[in-house]
Amino acid sequence: MSSGVEGLAVSRPLNELTLAEAAKMIAARRITSEDLVRACLDRIALRDDEIHAWAALDPEHALVQARDCDSRPVRGPLHGVPIGVKDVLDTVDFPTQMGSPIFADHQSRSDASCVSMLRAAGAVILGKTITCEFAGIAPGPTRNPIDRERTPGGSSSGSGAAVADYMVPLALGTQTGGSVLRPASFCGVFGFKPTFGIINRAGLKFAAESLDTIGLLARRLEDIALCLHVLTNSARPVSFTALDRPRIGICRTHLWQKAQPETRAALDYAARLAARAGANVEEFTLPPSFVRLSEARETINNVERSRSLAWEWANHRQQISVQMSQAIKNGQSISDEQYHAALRFAERSRQELDHILDSFDILLAPCVSGEAPMGLAYAGDPSFQGLWTLLHVPTLSIPAIRGPNGMPVGIQVIAKRFSDHSLLNCAQWLVLMASLDGTKSLTEVTDANLKRA
User: Fold this and answer.
1) FRET pair for 28, CA 20 to 30 Å: which of 78, 340, 359, 432?
2) Active site residue 258
3) CA distance 309 to 222
4) Could you tell me the pTM of the whole model?
């Protein structure tokens, strides 16, 4: 179907529209929300028996929402656009099952704050996307849409796969270690974890309350910027502006020895690209004490998981996976002194990093160990993302290159706490510079991978 508005011409199926494109077209009455939602549902009907991205879906309810949007004036910047919601966030009209048989058919009486804000902006909640059990490490059935023999990553597995497979333009995820950025890298889309706490977490089933952050997965940065505007109630969306020689640090981290050749190549590509485009690029090494951050995150994660799942452990232990049971046991064995020491160390490190990042606009760092692993039993190593999650900084996964098996490999972009808009602006600059450089642009890499599916 060919559709367009002034300054915007699109000649492709409606389900392939970006969030921003679709919102503009619906507001201009060039397409209907019902047609867009129906195109997404048709894609899901065609593909989800193989991909398994959706935990709960009600096509007729989605169309009722869409028709309601079409029958009234534009309510907000997301009017009529479908969005997926990770199944650890409460929704009043879909069950919230959290990837666990303990909560089969569990129905909340209210929406999570973020879901309610999306609805107020006019969005259609298309359905709930599959999560690893309690946003943890035991994977669900979701497959990578680019290579169905590989993991899509976790724990926001359904969100990453649904966005990558053109089932929905944007989906909510959550990140405790690497649960937004890893699926984004493995599936070849953008994944954004904002500064800790700037998106309200009411209505989220906590995994680890000191770490859990609601994030976004989309095929374009402008879609992330638009949705962030809605979810933070900011005065205006992120304005992508021209940058003059941004200051970029290349941070390989103490985990560099775990990086596979394709991840090393992705970071080197991004560094060369930035330098050719005129950025001030320099190698940057984190303070030696930051080596302890991975251990501190594991301590905090295990203690807080064991406490957040206290009721489930006491009453439904036999229905908890082996992987999560071990994390709970590990958390129960950690003393308050160890836990508090990890919390104090994390906060000192955050303050130290705030001062360090005064010298840079962004850092570029490895995002994942390499391509998505084969098989569905293991959702990938979260350590490259978990380090920064503990530090509460905003981070973004950008698809950068293809690995030896043709799978996407992302890089991670990091900025100072509460510099989320600056991070997105710098990331957009990097994507634009790739396009102008004459090499494969980062978004072209994304599209090329997704079109292979």
Assistant:
1) 432
2) no
3) 36
4) 0.95
